[in-house]
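User: Could you walk me through two proteins back to back? I'd like the raw sequence and the structure tokens for each, with a short line separating them so I can tell where one ends and the next begins.

Assistant: Of course. Protein one, sequence then structure:
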Amino acid sequence: MLSDLRFALRSLARHRTFTLVVTLTLALGIGSAASIFSVTDWILFRANAFPDDVFLVGGANDLSRSNPNRYDFMARAYMAQTGAMSEWAKAAYLSGNVVVEGQPVATSCLGVSPNLMPMLGITPALGRGFVAGEDVEGRNDVVIVTHQFWQQHLGGTPAALGRKLRVGDSLCTVVGVFREAQNFPPYLYSAVFRPLTYRVDPARPWNPSLLLFGRLQPGVTREVATQILSSARVDPPKQLRASLVNDHPVLSSMDELNQALHLQIYWVLLGAVGFLYAIACLNASNLMLVRMLGQRRELCIRLALGGGRWRIIRLLAVESFSLSLLASLAGVVVANWLFPLLLRAAGNPNSTPNWALWHLNPRVLVVLGLLTLATSLLIVIIPAFRVLRADIHSGLKDGGPALGESRTLARLRGLLVVLQAAFAVILLAGAGLMIRTFHRFQKIDLGFDPAGRIKVQIGFPPDAPSGSEVRLARLREIQTDLAHIPGVRAAGFGSDILLPGYYFASQSIAGPEGKPIRAAMVGFNVGYQNVAGIKLRRGQWLTQSTGNEILVSETLARTLWPNQDPIGRFLRPASSAYSPPPDWKGWLVVGVVGDVRSTMREAPGLFVYCPESWFAAGFNTFILRLARDFDPSFAGAIRRNLYSFDPDLVVYQIVPLAELRNSQLWIERLANSVLEVLAGIALALTIVGLFSVLAYTVDRRMGEFGVRVALGATRRDLVELVLRRGLMLTLVGVVLGAAAALALTRCLQSLLFETSAQDPWILAAVAVILVFTSILACALPAARATKVDVSRLLRSE
């Protein structure tokens, strides 16, 4: 074996071009596969890294959407009336800023029961966890922070334990730090955790809401627990009896909540990189076969001297393993540097987060090892089979066909190229569909201009005055303060309607023929439209902060009054809980506002715009129009300014509207960028594979070409002969690939927007690209065929 290894290394060193091409080919396939696996591993194969018997008790709202938030009266009913769970735990987001050394930081604080983290199997890497009894007033002034928060704000040293942080109005001590890259279940993402002391406001029993976790009793299944919990009698307060529709819980497993991660796209990416890996292996196998054909006489001599067929196969296996090992080492470089670089180039780094896909860990190392072994086997199978069928006697003759390229072997090598082309068509078709989808998203009319505008979400503390006029006055003071920050041109406040990521139709209004229609009632202050950039289609804007006048969205106006003028008409609720006066006609429509999108994927919702005095809530959204481009330091300046203005104001989010648009398209951007890179690599490898087949074929047929020229064939005839074979292989691959793409691209349909998975124009464009590039790949071998020296070839014959 050592002798074979030394011989293989010397042979690879002598044939440097072959070694370099095969190593780079396999490195692209192995490195890309390892990179994609590293980012999909924890999502697809380790996402449910929590106990299987722990569940989140959630429900659905009146739009049948997931709503994990429970109210305290619900939790008490579940705990008291059902024995489905052996243990319960709670979590709730706490109101208040997190302040480090007098400076507010951009993070939130999550209150949790002391038993929640141990229930989920999560323990701090540094310090301790919460202990029983710390969830009562006076003993809950302790926090555990994430590793990232520890590094960014606490110096990243063990001395951070014992440091003081101000969380809301409390001074808390850091007692623990979670490990690096600690995973948390959905809805538990936070940077600071504190023992939960839950206080319900009797006047507003829906605020705050909580997340309720439970551990199943031994022997109780999820389905049985769902039935038991659904039978619990929940008696809501009178304020909620008319509107509460989700009083029947649904038991949701942790891994089912990961649907927010769009698991389908990760399976698509794994399948795509599998095609690329197959292309790389087919290409390398073809090149190995070409090299073995060039060494046919040497191998036949070894057989004649008693080397043995299995000894020759072992020599080939050692050589292929050496190549695969070199390719795996180079694949680490591809995954760590080249692949993320290509992704950043394809994903526009100015508007996307950094692509940190590569993470070397023991699981990825195991995958690299398995890929090395699999690759060495895949690329040696055909040459080994050829050795088993070799005829020594004809191989020792000059020009004998043993181990040479027979008609069957030529067809086999052509088949390998056809398969590469077919796989390349599948990847190119998938990339083309995502490119068209992304292009369609860029053309969406949002109903406002996101350029130069940021969203600032602010909440009042729980003990702030709840009177409408008092809150309105405070909101206007905040608006004035924000408008005077250097770099801010104007500020306005209102409901969160500009790309919040959700659409909630809370109001039932009377529609045509008395049928109720669900719409969203939102409010904003006078002049908000100039800041947000929304458009008036008809009528006028609201000129007063109070009154009975409203605006309606364009789609709602068409729904209620098709082909009619909505201005001057009245809008009434389908059912009213506050019993309006008998002579009340309804809300007067004075204007129609252009449709505004709440999400990028869904159609614009139905909106009723009300005066600001109707919605003086505890949570408000300010829109700032900037005089300059946004940068992250400006968000810190706004946060510090608001903290100086009023330390009790809670700043939840400061984000540019353009970034919100991009963040809602992160899954499309991910699929688009990765498939673009994989398709580009696949196209390059396919060209190399086609070139290698034609180059070798031309080299083997130079004698035949000399005879053809001697008998009257022109050089154009030789070029057509070479091009015909190359284009035939490509066209067969395109046909097979198109048929497979029609079936496989259906997996992308849920990711597409205004694009069909069977778009014929995409397949036509892919075919044109592949045929055009194949002509380029055929050009050099065809030119080589025209340089045949007839007299020299005839003399040698």
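----
Protein two, same layout:
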Amino acid sequence: LGAGDVSLRLAVDVPAWGWALIALGIGAFVVGVYRRLMGGRAWRLGLAAARGLVLGLVVVLLCGPEAVRREERVEPDVLVMLVDRSASLAVEDMGETTPSRESALRAALSAQWPEVAAGLDETREVRWLGFGERVFGLGDPGHRGDPEDREHGFGLPVALGEADQLGTRLRTAVEEAVRRTAGRPVAGVVVVSDGRSGEEVSSGLVARLGQSAVRVLAVPLGAADGGLDVAVTRVDGPRRAFAGDVVPVSVGLEVRGAGAGGATAPEVVVRLVDTKGTDEPGDDAVLDERTLSAEQSRGPVRLEATEVEAGPREWVVEAGLAAEATGPTVSELNASNNRAALSVEVVDRPIRVLYVEGTPRWEYRYLKNLLVREASIDSSILLLSADANFAQEGDTPITRLPADAEEWARYDVVILGDVPAAYFGDEQVELLRERVSRAGVGMLWLAGPGFVPGGWAGTRLADVLPMVEPGAVAAMEGGFVTVEPTGLAEALAVLQLGDEDGRFAEASGPEMSRWPAGLGALRWVQDVGVLKPTAEVLAVGLAEGQARESAGALPVVTRMRYGAGQSVYVATDETWRWRRGVGERFPERFYVQLVRMLGRGAVAVDDARVRLEASSRRVNEGGSVVLDLVVADAGLLPAGVADVPVRLAADASGSGGGVELLLREVKRDAAEADDGERRFSAVWTADRPGEFVARVTHPALSALDVQTQIEIAAADDELRNPEADHAKLMQLAEATGGAVIPLDALATLNDPQVVPSVARRIADDRTESVAHSPLAFALLIGLLALEWSARRAMRLA
């Protein structure tokens, strides 16, 4: 065992009274053995003593005598460095020298960690972990550091790698860091992060850390305030439009950060840019631009553009802080979420319109002239009350209603005036309804005192009307009505009558800025009653002195989606009154804009024999997408096919793995199935982010390469909201009895008041058995030999 503090002990602990009994027993035994033997008394006493020593030595050896050297060892405590490696560390809000959170972190570790390391001794181990969506070990950079750090002149204690995690799971990371210590004493968990996490600090986490006596020390990254982020969250616009059409683009914005909702929040600039199909700088053309106040940026922002050249267009929506708002105290946190792309195909052909009217009322006289005069419209006009010799008007005159599906397919928009339903046969009504629901044809209803809408109650076209009870609609009694548009009309780029020469005072409010006040009041307006849940109001009628937000405002212009198409109902036939003093300007713009909006539905529907459509091209992770496959030519698929497989893959080729989805056939009644079209549908739940290509893989359709694209946004995408959340870090530190350490004060980690030592001293005694030692063997043999020699001398052996 060497020199030192060595002691002896018995493996079997015998009490004192036990040793007394053993001694008495041995004494009685040896006395009984040598009492009656022949020989001198001195010799017998010597032999008895020798025998007693032998027996006593045997008993001691049986109790396991051990030599023990007292020693102890120190189990070092663990200081866990949990470093955020999420994408939000790229946000630049840390100043001019090290603008990004990542560069500030690297600079701080490079400059301060040598001092921290110098204060560490063998009683503390530092363990480096990175975290984001998961927890992982950080690599050893070697004696020279990793290449990226050497390039910037940094020498880091670990190789941090790229900060590219799309999400941050702070709670999970802390729990995993403690689990990885495997029962070792934990001096503390140092969380180096901006606090941006989709997980909240739960009471359960705090309780578990308290049970393990683990404290969290927070090192916040990023600016606590002063940064703003403008994000384009949604872009909606038509996929196809007519040349010369005003294309509306609805933009969803979010302005986040300190002071984003205050009265002094900076203005935001939103632009619609045509990239001209190239990435070359200087080729972009700004199509529309708006500067918004903080209040205006909270709702959908409407941009618009007019394109006269046919072909595909690649547009981009850009948003950011106004130039005068940026400066040393206000900066853009994240520029990567300021853009969103939009593809639009411009079709250069006239909008084909069929206008059917019952009698030559005033509305008909001006509307038919407008349709003939407008160069972007190819009109066919049918007046039912005209005699046989009347020459029907229009660019493409007709003498009767379309009789079959092929003739109905010539039109993009159908305007239905005060026409009795009886004039249409059941087959014509069904064909028109099918054109609206499946081909995207738009319907424009013009109210009339005779047949619209009451005469259409009970027919299949009643489904296309926006009111619940067409038969109960009646004209409003008494007074004049002034028409005012709603905000939806502004977003759809309709009912923008304008007032270029200033003859009319413009109404107040951002959604009314393109509607001139002072238009002629209407004397005849219908009260349409209760609208269907999917109907939307584009304009309301107000009595004198009535507010637009009042409950009694009458819907004058309503819109409703119906399948692939849409229907607009105008509850008056007196827009011709707006001609007074200004001519055709206002009625013309009123109808042309509605016709253009309705016509976009027909041109947006693909004429391909097979179409794969997604209910939404961009959804958040965890959301659902409905995939619909339309097979217009039933001969492309065998009759017995009830399911069509579709592969959703994360690459364009579809070869990189993915998800198989079966689209099941949608059952249709006998009347609907006569057109030979087949439909298949399925719902896909987006379980991971990325850009996916959905491609039909059925052998009968694979050669057609039918596909569509879907973008899935990460639910906890770091860059959707890059503002630092220091409050969350402070809450976690305070709840666990830890502390908040500034990034420029990492040397505080050596302060025993901040990070006390919890290293454990563990006894590590060294023992050796005496019973198996040569000394014990020699003693036993020596005593036995002494007794035997004495017995020989007395002639007893």
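DSSP finds 14 helices and 38 strands in the chain.

Let me know if you want the two compared in more detail.
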